[in-house]
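The aim of this short unit is practical: by the end, you should be able to scan a pair of folded records and say something sensible about each. We start with the first protein, listed as its amino acid sequence and then its structure tokens.
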Amino acid sequence: MNVEPLLSRLDGVKETQSGCWVARCPAHEDRRPSLSIRETDDGRLLVHCFAGCETPDVLAAIGLSLPDLFPERIGEHFAPERRPFPATDVLRCIAKEALVVATSGAKLLAGEPFGQQERDRLMLAVARIQSALDAAGVQNG
């Protein structure tokens, strides 16, 4: 399958560079793009939701499944992608999470009360940012 049937089923699609797009994830209520799509040189489609949705759930929400992401090839194996998603796409998709971290830090520095709900949301933002780094192939050191 080429990328067009996938992109046509998504909302808010924007090409970020040749072979790379971001869109709103169909598996959750997404106001800003958190889904990154990349078409590799060998025809594979890489899909990742930086809000944490599993790829099968994203595809099911638009009537596709995992085999739809791969070209038909018999007896060939694909090499893993070293950096599957461009850093700019990762940053676009986690911008809201970075804002949550910044807002939480400012609130703590100002000495304002910081309740359990705010702690939980901060920890979710940190987990999503870490997941985005992992998906982008970035090594924390």
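Turning to the second protein, read its sequence before its tokens, just as you did above.
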Amino acid sequence: MLKKIPCNMENFDELNAMCKEAIAWLGGCDIFIHTAANMLVKIPLSLDESDWRQALRVNLLAPYFCIKGAMPALKDSPAGRIILFGSGAGKSGGLGHNLTYGASKGGILAMTFNLARELAKTKVTVNCLVPGPIDGPLMREFGPELYKKALAKHPMGRFAMAAELVPPTLFLASEEAAHITGEALDVNGGYFTD
């Protein structure tokens, strides 16, 4: 049975309440996955404080406060897993006009590496999936010209489908990945390599 708990990702009191309600309903927490993101397409030097505030709250602070809320239950789990979703934009600076997204996703990578070291003693692993462009509505926000340009330079000639992120997520959540922590796993079809 699926339970949906509405929550404003920019309201940390709501996030905390959502975490408590979810953990109570589930009776604990073995795996925490954060996928929510805010991508603003705007000329970089035209950004204002509210643009930055929204991106940082949704993309960086929300996962942090959710992790903080879930940690007591994750520590009690025999196989605690934290899986964050970064982005190639966090490594490359992004495509076109998405500075706040790229900067906040770079922060997710730093959070992954830091928390992986900090939480290793608790046996809770912290990893990050780093997708390249995903075929969907967010990519189309860049407009047809940039979309076509990005697609033309993709080695596979296509963007990833959202469903292609499921198997690597399941792997990082699995028992087989118990000794993997602090990993930023690129899932981008060769769009960028490092």
